[in-house]
Structures are given as C-alpha cells and as structure tokens.
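Batch job 17 of 40 flagged for manual review because the log was empty.
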Amino acid sequence: MDTYDILLYGSYLLIALGAFVSIVMPLIKSLDNPKSLLKTVVGIVGIAVLFFIAYSISSDEVLPKFTTEQINMTAEKSKSIGGMLIMTYILSILAIGGIVFTEFNKAIK
C-alpha cells in the first residue's frame, strides 16, 4: 500500500466523519428547541414537493446516441436528471430574485 493510498483513505474517513458530525450535531442541538426542528422538516418537505413538481414536468426523451452500452441512459434516468435540472433552475432563480429584492429593500430603507 502506497502513501497516496493511505492518505486517500484517510481523507475519505475525514469526509465521512465531517458529514456525519455536520448532520448529527444540529439534530442533537435542535432537541432542546423542537420548533427549530419543525422548520427543518418544513424545508425538507418543501424541497421534496419542488422536486416532485419539477420531475412531473420533465421529459423522459432519450436520444439514440445515449442508449449505448457504455452510457446506458434509460427514460427513468433521463426524467430524474431533467427533474433535478429544473429544480436547480427554479432554486437559482429564487436565490437571485431574493438577492435582488434584499438589495432593493436595503436601498429603499
């Protein structure tokens, strides 16, 4: 086993540990205040509903060049990728709109 392999596995371990801690610690802290946990659940449900809407309006069309054995794109994969892209577009537009609104609101006040 080379030094690069050891360091690579160590970085995988640290990434997994960081992800675990960043998810679990806020949950432990929110047990003190259950209303903050409710806000988190509402946010997650909102994202799920937005994905369902984006998934519903996305197309499942797959071009013939993407159905090769190497790529193996199916209609279901195409529809889910389209849903994720549409959801990303909607969230990006909402974020930019929020930034513009905040700046105009600050300028007016």
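Reviewer: the log was empty due to a logging misconfiguration, but the result itself is present. The radius of gyration is 21 Å. Unflagging and moving on to job 18.
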